[in-house]
UniProtKB/TrEMBL annotation:
Molecular function in Gene Ontology: oxidoreductase activity, acting on the CH-OH group of donors, NAD or NADP as acceptor
Highest taxon above the source species: Eukaryota
Keywords of the record: NADP
InterPro entries with a match to the protein in the record: NAD(P)-bd_dom_sf, SDR_fam
PANTHER family cross-referenced by the UniProt entry: SHORT-CHAIN DEHYDROGENASE_REDUCTASE, SHORT-CHAIN DEHYDROGENASES/REDUCTASES FAMILY MEMBER
TM helices/strands, residue ranges: none
Family membership noted in the UniProt record: Belongs to the short-chain dehydrogenases/reductases (SDR) family.
Annotated source species: Exophiala dermatitidis (strain ATCC 34100 / CBS 525.76 / NIH/UT8656)
Name of the protein: 3-oxoacyl-[acyl-carrier protein] reductase
Gene3D superfamilies assigned: NAD(P)-binding Rossmann-like Domain
Amino acid sequence: MAVLHLTAFDTGIGRATALSFVQAGCTKLALVDLDEAGLEVTKRLLTDTVWPTGVNPLVRTYKCDVSSPEGVVAAYAAAKESFSRIDYSVHCAGIIVFGGPSADLPVEDFDRQNSINYRGLWLCSREAIRIMRSQPLDCEAYPEAKILPSRAQRGAIVNISSALAVYAQPNCPAYCGAKAGVLALTRCDALDYVADRIRVNAVLPGVVDSPMTNPSPEVRAWLEANPVQHTPMKRFGQPEEIADVAVFLAGNKASLVTGASWTVDGGALAGWN
């Protein structure tokens, strides 16, 4: 009966993550996005599906701009009021602007990407931690789950970064820099809150088949001809492949994992030179 708080789930990795958590047994979801129509579509998908457990999840939706401190505080407070705790918080919000190299990049494009990809993610992490550190361990909250006290946690955070945090792509200085910042934030929060039994990890997707990688036929063709062909597996990743890793990292089976960066990129980093 775990509670998931998920930002940016209207399409792609976010929606797949919501579905994967329910498949893994999560029964309460707080979903946050700026797109109200996308919120409703995902909510219906979650509640109308016939799940093997026979139990449909309880879903609450909250419209929120993650770059707004007041909006993020309100969304997390509303989720806490609805569910009394947050077990997992997965932060998927992100945008990419191919604005050119640094000398040609407008300040507005730089600021917009950082306000969502880094600052917005930090705002979400901050509120999740504030809630998690004051709640009982999950072994106490869910005694029926028979979680070993040594593997129990007050909460787990999964930050969706990018493989571009590690290796560069032309014309993406703001995006790559923000995603690298997410890795540093993940490590810092993991160390700062390990004593509170809060684990913090990052997932670094490679090129994933999603709306972000299909903004136009020209961009799609470039991705297929360049990064995809340079990936050892030579294919786009699927959102579900990222989501399943996030589910694992959030759960007690990953109880010894914190401060880690899991690259899910079809071998691109291994073959990068």
